[in-house]
Structures are given as structure tokens and as C-alpha cells.
Amino acid sequence: YFIRLCLEKLLLQCVLQSRTLSGADAINALRPFYFAVHPDFFGQHPKEREVNENSLKRLNGYLENLQKPGFRCFKPTQLTFYVREREPNASNVQESFSASGFRAVSFTLHTRDLLSTVLDILNSCSLSTEHVQSLNVNSQPHKEAKSTLYRPIKWDKTYYSFTGFKDPEEELEQAQRVETTLISWLDDNEASAVKKLKKSLPLRKELERLKFELLHQLQLSDIRWQRSWGIAHRCSQLHSLGRLVQQRPEVLKNVKGHTVVFTDRSGMSAAGHIMLGTMDVHHHWTKIFERLPNYYELQKRLLFLEDRISQLLGGIQVIYIEELQALLTLEEYYETLDAFYNRLRDSRLPFHPRSLRGLQMILESDRYTPSLHEFGHFTIPTVCDPATLQWFIFAKAQEARENLKRKEEMMIAEKELISTSTEKFSLDRLYKEPSVSSAQMIDCCKRLLEESLPYLHGMHLCISHFYSVLQDGDLCIPWNWK
């Protein structure tokens, strides 16, 4: 009986092996998925973009592990993606719609081969799987293939008792029942994080040196990065800027006092920062630096336009918040302000002069109804009906002032808690992702201070929405950790 069971298992393994995918085939099969969730298509939606970017990193790590020979230690991995589709689809996975209308899809990966993983992902996001049959896979109908792949051998429990092998079904059920806790996760990942952090230390010192030299040489206010690139990538970008300084020092004479941001495209941002596209060559960067006088002139016109809008709306201040708004160029933001100003000027709303001084508002081109943010600023659509705008601002003015006051208190509390937590745990750095609010950060730090966590000594800790060890050794933990 035992020999017969072993032969059946061997036969099934042969069948499964004939239906495996190569790494390249898996990437080709997932192209529709990558297109639907790729962060670069979410430029107007920073929160959704960041979630997709982080989830893709974890998914790519999962796929890489699947291709490692002899790798058997798999933990169920939960992922969340915002999908570009606008209409909800029936699905067995957890779904919700964000404020911007994108579909949020959450699912857990626990498969142990590329083919079943690819099919799992495509089905979870309601994407077609027909093209998978054209790859180097047995061309059976998808439903039959899926049932074969997901139908485990129903071994009798005595088989595992006799052989000493672990029951995979029992292991999976146990892993799904046990919720990841901060302590258990740190136990499992501290060694890996310390190893990566030590490896990155020379590069971190090099990055600090390069940044200090360029800040001093160009008399810049700051150098920043829009995306969470690794240390090596950042060093490479600073080396490129350093070479340009040596080759064309005359074109950089107008950058004094400004902030340089490495991002996806070149130009000047709505916040007045110099953007250097990481995919652009020195020729493109040189053109941006040469055009700075023109940008400064446009910036003056933009500030004048903001002032005119403020006068029409009772003194409310028009602001641009990088962390909450899409990264716009100066030209794009000027066009947005100009269109909004023309609508206001024609409507002649009866706001009393200076009646709304002290209040703030931001403009959004992809919204249709006004809203009030927890930090006290109004979020106003550029196409908002003037009468609706007037009623909303009047109705929410007092609440907005209270929120602004609460924001100041919250920022002070957050700064103090970060400082206290950094000191208590001897952290080298404690920071948060932009998508984590101040309220969430405060709650997270308060609960951390109640714990004893010697694992964190000398580490870089990032407060996020998921658990992860970044490539340079930074520890990411969710703000609502258990």
C-alpha cells in the first residue's frame, strides 16, 4: 500500500512538472496584470501608486523565491493592488473602491509553483487567463488545468505519521490561522535585516558625502527623491549630477537656494522644486537648468494668480501639498489655477473680503465634489460648481479652523513621539511612508513605547502598511501592528 501511494505521488509530480512555467513565461503571462496595476499609470493618485509599488516589490520577491532551486519555505503572502478598471467585477477576493474610483483587490498567495501563482493572480484581479495557454504549457482547458493544480493528494494521516513528513494542508491552515505579530516577525527577520544593513553602510556614508558636497557646492536648500529608490541607485544619481557640475558649471549658476528632486520627469514642480528625471540624459538636465529664469518668471505669475483667487474667495489661501497631491509641473499647475480663476471670476461669488483668512484649500483636477481634509484644508475640484463651492465653504469653515488647530497639536505630538521612540530603542532612524497619516503614526509610536524591543537597536525603522525588509536593511512594519 505504501509503495503504491509513493508511485501515485511520483506520477502526479511528473504531470505537474510537464505543466510548469519558466520565469520568462511567467512574466509574459503577467503582462496584463502589470499593465493594470503599474505605479507609473497612477501619477494623479499618489496613495494608490505607493500601495501598488510596495505590493509589486513583495510580489516580485515571491516570484523570485519560487524560481530558486530547492526553496521550500513559503509563507502565505497577502497583497493589495489598486486596479485601473472602473467597474466592479464579481470575485471571491476582498474588494473595495477607493475615493478616486479604482478597485482595491486583496488576495493571499500560498502556491508553490509559477503556473498556479500566475493563474491565482490573474483570477484574483478578474483578468483573462486565455493567453496563458499560448505559452510553453500543456494546452488543456484552463478550468481543467486549475482543478488539477489545486487538487492535492488526499494522503491518509497515517502516511505522515509513518514517514515523518509534514502535512502541507495542516501547515497551510496553521499559517493562515496564526496572525503575524510584531515580535514573531522581528524574530524571523532581524538577522536578514542586520545583514543587509551592514552591507549598505559604506554606500550610506557615500550617499551622505555626495549629498553634502553638492549641497555646499551648489548652495542648494535640499536634495530629495520622489520614489523609494535604493541607496546604490541614489548614489548613482548624485554621481551623475556631480559630473554635470564638473562639465557645465555655468548652467548651474541659478540653482542657489532651491531644492532638487530626483523623479520620473524633468522640469520645475508646482512647489517650485527643480525636477531631474532619472531616465533623462545630461542634455535634458542642462536644458532645465538653462530654462530656470523662465521658470522663475512663470512662478511669479502663478503666485499672482493664487493671490487673485484668494481675493475672490474671501482671503482663503491656495496651497499645494506635495505629500497629498499628484506631482505636477509648474506649467500644469498654472493651467489648473488659470482655469479655476476664470470660472470664479465669471461667477462673482459674494464672499466678504478677508472673511476666510487663515483657511487653506488645494485644487484637484480628478474630483467632482469638494471635501474637508482632517488637517483642515479644503479639497476643491477645478470643475466645482460655484454655488456648491460657496455653500460648502460656508458650512465647513468653523470645522476647518478646528482641524487646522488640531493639526498643529498633532504635528508637535508626532515629532515628540518619533524623538522619544528613536531614543528608547536606540534606532538609527525612524520614519514613515507618506501614505501613513500623523494620527496613525502617533498611535503606532504610543504602542511601540509600551514594548521592549531590543531587536531594533541601531536599525532603520519605517512605519508603513505591511511587513517587509527593504534591500538596504530598513525594517518596514504596519502602523497597526499586533
UniProtKB/TrEMBL annotation:
The protein's matches in InterPro entries, at most eight in alphabetical order, are given as:
DUF4460, DUF4461, TCAIM
Domain DUF4461 intervals: 180-482
What sections of the protein cross the membrane?
none
- The DUF4460 domain covers 17-127
The record's Pfam families line, in alphabetical order, gives:
DUF4460 (PF14687), DUF4461 (PF14688)
- List cellular component terms (GO): mitochondrion
The name of this protein is T-cell activation inhibitor, mitochondrial
Which sequence ranges form a coiled-coil region, renumbered to this chain?
Answer: none
